Structure formats: C-alpha cells, structure tokens
Amino acid sequence: MEGVSLFAVTYLILIPVFVYWVIGKRRGLFTLASYFLCAGLNALVKLTACVYRPWIRDPRIIPAGDSIETATGYSFPSGHTITAGTIYGGTALSLWKPARLFSILCLILVFLTGFSRNYLGVHTPQDVIVGVLEAALVLFVVEKLFMHVEKKIESEIIVLSIFFAIGWLGMAYVTYKSYPMDYIDGKLLVDPMKMKADGYTNLGYLIAFPVARLFEKSFVKFKPAGPNLKGIVMGGIGTVSLYLMIKYLKPLVHSSVGYYLGRFAFSFILVFYCVALYPMIIKLVMRGFRK
Fold first, then answer.
1. What is d(CA 165, CA 132) in angstroms, rounded to the nearest whole number?
2. CA torsion sign, 11 to 263 to 86 to 148?
C-alpha cells in the first residue's frame, strides 16, 4: 500500500507525458492540464481548511509503516487522491476507446490509491472522498474547456490566462494568509513554512502550464512520435530522463535556488520540459529520421 501511495505522488506524471509525447497530443494534454489545475486548486483548498492529520485529531490512529514520514502537512483533501484521480482518471477517459482494459485498470488504481491512504491511517474517508470529487469535477471542467477551445481556437489564450492568474493570485494568498500555530509538548504541529513551500510547488504547475503550452503552440508545434518502435524509444528516453530529473535534479534545485523559490523553480522546469522542451526534441529527432 505504501508503494501505491508513493508512486501516485512522485512518478505518476510519467504516464500522461508518455501519452502526450507518443500516442496522442490532445489525450496527454487533457490529463496534464487537469492535473496541473487540480494540484493548484487543491493547494488553495488544503491551505484554507488547515485540517490536521488523523493521528493528531485521534491518538488511537497509528499510521502504518513509514507512511507518517511522507504524510506531512495538512490532511484535507488528500493530495495523493487528487493526483491519482486526475492522472489515472484523465488517462482512463482519454484512452477509453483505444485501450479499454488499460482504462479500467487506471480507474481501479484511482480507488486503490484512495483506499491506501485510509489503510495507512494518513487520511480520513472524508479526505479521500472529497479528493475524488475534486478530481472528477476538474476533469469535467477541463474537458468542457477543451471542447470550447476546439470550437473557438482564439479562446485558448483566455483560458490559459485564467490558469495563469489563478496561479499568481494563489501564490499571493498562500504567502500572506495566516496559519494555525498549535503546539503539543512544545512541538509545532504543522510548520507554515513547509505548507507555503508545498503551495508554491503546486501553484507553480498552474503558472508554468500556460507559458509552456503557448510556447509549444507558437514555436514547437510538434506531433506525437507515434506508437511505433521509434516513437516508443523516444517516449522511453523522455520518461527515463524525466524520472532522473525528479529523483536527482529536484533536490539539487531545491537546495541551490532556495527553500521557496526552489520549489517554484523546479515545478516550472518540470512542466516546461514535459509540455514544450522534450516535444521540441521529439520534433527535431523525428525530422532527422525522415531525411
């Protein structure tokens, strides 16, 4: 169960970027846009509600294994669940017709991830249920936005501007709002500095996505590599490089740029790499193959 939870919050983004790079641009972009929007909105909800973890509210609850080490910060709604809900759920919706069995597996994994958070004792059922509902609502809204933009291409800049504005307004909100300062045995229950850093990470996605999307749309204009040997190899190289970025570059950026700015900076790097930079590499490499 710990493995299910860890993957959901750390490396799950590898799935939609592979879809985006290799299988279908619209399909992958739908899932990525849903995740980035939901991550930013969930940060605002979580840092507004400021609900403590279950074991703080009820000492009879004892988290399983090492799950308490990664379950930092506030509890409501579940961040793992909204990540699984938007990424697994978005992938399931976008691949429902061409890959029905895989889509069903993704939907099962949404609920398995939510169950794992309850099983480990790091979230209440309410945290998980609201997380699932939040993810479902965002998927619905983003699909409607995509349909609107496909009918009126010029409206995409308005939609992206709204994403961008929500991100920056959210940054100001989490920076200047007040946070609970409750202590038990002289120890601060939740450090507001860490909560702000988490907010900068998630709102950074929401700010970076419009920039990366406009850059790709205006200058890159790539086409997915295709579900063939060359395309799968290109997608595999990209996902491995993204995995290495998350594992090694992320802590380096966090430590070298600064506690707050480092979180925002890596979020921006990650989104730009996924949405615009690696697609540029795909375009150049595939053009070389065709010569």
1. 25
2. negative
Q: What is the pLDDT of residues 166-177, one digit of tens each?
A: 999 999 999 999
Which residue(s) pair with 187 in the sheet? 184
**pLDDT of 8 above 60:** no
Q: What is the per-residue pLDDT for 199?
A: 94
Label residue 163 left, alpha or beta by phi (over 0 means left) and psi (-120 to 50 means alpha): alpha
CA 9 – CA 202 distance, rounded (Å): 12
User: Rounded to 5 degrees, what are φ and ψ at 188?
Assistant: -65, 125
- The tokens describing 243, both together, are 């995995």
Angle CA 196–7–262, to nearest 5: 30
Contacts 24+ apart (CB under 8 A), 162-165: 163/36, 163/37, 163/206, 163/207, 163/209, 163/210, 164/206, 164/207, 164/210, 164/211
Residue 11 has φ and ψ, to the nearest 5°, of -120, 5
Between the CA atoms of 154, 171, 177 and 77, what dihedral angle is there, to the nearest 10 degrees? Answer: 80
As a whole number of angstroms, the distance between CA 88 and CA 130 comes to 16
pTM confidence score: 0.91
Sign of the four-CA dihedral 51, 8, 107, 137: positive
Give the span between the Cα atoms of 180 and 51, in whole angstroms: 10
Where are the chain's structural domains?
2-290
For 101-140, letters b (16+ CB in 10 Å) and e give eebeebbebbebbbebbbbbbbbbeebbbbbbebbbebbe
Nearest to 37 by CA among 136, 123, 176, 116: 136
Distance CA 36, CA 79 (A): 12
pLDDT of 187: 84
CA distance 127 to 43: 13
Omega of the bond leading into 180 within 30 degrees of 0 (cis): no
